[in-house]
Amino acid sequence: MFSHAPHPPAVSFSAVQPGLKLADQVAQQLEARIRSGELQPGQKLPTEAELVQQLEVSRTVVREAISRLKSRHLVESRQGSGMYVKAAGIEPLDFGLSAAGKNAVIQIAEVRRALEAEVAELAAGRRSEQDMQRIRQAEDTLAEAVRQGRDGVEEDMAFHRAIAQASGNPFLISTLDYMSQFLRSAMRITRANEARRDDFAQAVEQEHHGIVMAIEAGDPLAARQAAARHMGNAIARIQQADASFWAQDGERLARDILAAKP
Questions:
Q1: For residues 25 and 172, what is the distance between their CA atoms, to the nearest angstrom?
Q2: Tens digit of pLDDT for each residue in 13-29?
Q3: 88-117: string of b/e by CB count within 10 Å (b at 16+)?
């Protein structure tokens, strides 16, 4: 007898918020679940009725969002069955990461520096009080993770994504979601290195807080500079990592960057 494969866990969505066009927000939520792997290739999407109920929008909004995902080749309809995540989506970008190690980590950090600076600048000019609450909560959650001795990778990712949400640009958010596997792998290395030295760990916390303060102050230039400085310092900290770090942890973790290629 052949056993059936277990059904994937149910995926839930949160109600959309005022601001961006509703269809953009719905498409953004769905695409983020696909890019992160929470919705797997071949997996059936929730029904239209379920999405309407969970997202608290109209059927028209859901249909428009699904249409956008279909145009991006992320989902496909199967007659009489429903909507499914496509087995082959957008062709992956070639980041040219030819080898694991320090150079690969620095290359990812350079990409992050450009993106995070732009995201922070936009967030400072567009953030709402609700955005600020999410950003402050993410900052506090990250600090608590560090106090408890965890690596803080997921919390760090959530912190930067909260800022991206405040930018109000769904394409920037989608770009970060698309790169999330690379960013997560690189962040494991930078945070592992920073955890080895108290001065590094303190500097990271201060840099994060500087970004938050600039966004809260509504100062786009200061926010851009703070975010760029944070990533520039992350590169410098990797460059300062001693040989023992790479021998023990760095090289092994860096190989995950290549393994994470979508």
A1: 13
A2: 655 555 457 888 888 88
A3: ebeeeeeeebeebebebbbbbbebbbebbb
Each residue's pLDDT tens digit, 27-68: 888 888 887 778 888 889 999 899 999 988 999 999 988 888
- Could you give the CA distance from residue 232 to residue 236 in angstroms, rounded to a whole number? 6
User: Distance between CA atoms of 51 and 12, rounded to whole angstroms?
Assistant: 9
Q: CA 21: distance to chain centroid? A: 21
The vertex-127 CA angle with 107 and 60, nearest 5°, equals 95
Contact by Cβ (8 Å): 68, 23:
yes
| String of DSSP letters for 38-85 | SS-TTPBPPPHHHHHHHHT--HHHHHHHHHHHHHTTSEEEETTTEEEE
Element (H, E) at 235: helix 220-240
| Spatial contact of 123 and 215, defined as CB atoms under 8 Å apart | yes
Which two tokens mark 236? 């410098």
For tokens 């496909």, the residue is 76
Torsional sign, CA 57, 175, 191, 199:
negative
One DSSP character per residue, 111-172 reads HHHHHHHHHHHHHHHH--HHHHHHHHHHHHHHHHHHHTT---HHHHHHHHHHHHHHHT-HHH
- pTM for the model stands at 0.60
